[in-house]
């Protein structure tokens, strides 16, 4: 029983990390109807920001996540202004290809500037620290902190979207852009803000990850794939749906990985995604 | 009159062009170059290792093309091969992907016209890429891919310098037997964690064979997909089975994540022995700091082995100029330099670029190799270097200490590994 609980705990903690990575993508996809293929590279850049702050200025990821979040927020707004805004209203494939090109560009810039070498912060404040829960359960502190951050960010985003004027404006823009503009909402600014918030969420996740994970130019690839699955499974634009889908992915991954075989954990995740999409093409909570 | 003059001018121009074209060809021929391809993962998850392997081949070519009379390595004193031929390298990047490796090998042989290819680090890539060479009856020199399977295919044109995971598995098991006999340990249960690739799967197969042949119990078989976002289930599985000894076949970032995850789960085996992997990478060892300590593995070369191989130091100086940051050779990269040097010796001995004669010479002779632990290279049918040797080392304080076999040992192995809470 203790082993089962440990596996479930690990799965939930990983699920919370996936949720934090997913939430921004879900927001952008839901509001703007744009698939940001560079989402994984935004995560990678945030990890580099956190790593370099740690390496050069000895700032722990517990603090540098703020800088990572702000950096990726600004990067996202610039990307929106320079690239994405030109593609609003054009076929969805245009934005998809443009952000795919951007992802290649960002990856190759990092390869060129930072080399393909793995970079790991050796002495992070929480790195490797654990809390013993009872006799048999172990809680990894870095993963726990990421899970807490994830929950706080998701609650704040949810509150922002549902209880503030700007949030209502975002929702109105997502539902009917033309109607929103007739109501006096500057949808261009709303889109820039949504792209920025989406970037900031993944930026915060990337800022915290170097507590235990090495950074390299390829690190975002699998995360972004899992984020796409969580968004599609949860329902486009549904924050709660993305959260639940991410938790489900984390749990399935951990349970299948432990009770069947680790090499099948991603097979199970992608299999589950296919089943959900076949039964509910708009995702579990999609409108 | 004007028409005739025009015709004459046309003819003269045509002749001038032809002569010019032919003399260009002659000038190219006089350049006397031997094109050799390199095929390594220069981008992707194991790019760091690939960049080093490429730099090692470049260092060997520098030795061959230029005169270094003070370096005690074959061909270093002379300039070039076959009376002045220079080796020119053509680099290709396979990104760690077998399909890319195969198509890049085809490009190197067919379009670039290379005489031979050196590569490919990942066994999974070396396998299809070397079959491209075999079909074309071209030489493929492999430095460090360790899958034993590669030299059991009955190929003629494939040659591998490094020890295989078969010999390493036997060495690991012998080391544990030696510990049990001489240090009073009683290690009986074994597990293997490995990436689900050609390299990892074969390492695990050989490990299982060696463990069971020695009468030990094989209790945990944990495969994982390389580049995973986490290794929690994998480590949880190991922890559940709790083997005394774990063999690891994890490369690059996965090796780091494996160790970090074991720390997060407060678990360690008593002994961990690693195949050519993140363990051998001095940069990863440095980044892991104290967390990487007390792990063990085989090492064909590390700076701490330099006293056994004095010729390495001057070659390493050349190598360091070709890699950023300037790190020393590691076990894998040095094997690629050896591959280049042995091929060059064979070309020089045969005295021509006749592939069949060079292949025959490679099999028939024993080659001096001051950059190898055994000092010699000789190939058995199938292409395996039967003189390949490696030493079991333990990482302590960021240094690779020699612990086994006894005649090479300079350090008493620390077993069991101190648990995470007892480390500084």
Automatic annotation (TrEMBL), chain B:
It comes from the Bacteria. Keywords: Signal. Pfam families: Peripla_BP_6. Residues 34-393 form the Leucine-binding protein domain. The keyword Signal applies. PANTHER family: ABC TRANSPORTER SUBSTRATE-BINDING PROTEIN, LEUCINE-SPECIFIC-BINDING PROTEIN. Belongs to the leucine-binding protein family. This is Amino acid/amide ABC transporter substrate-binding protein, HAAT family. It comes from Acetomicrobium flavidum.
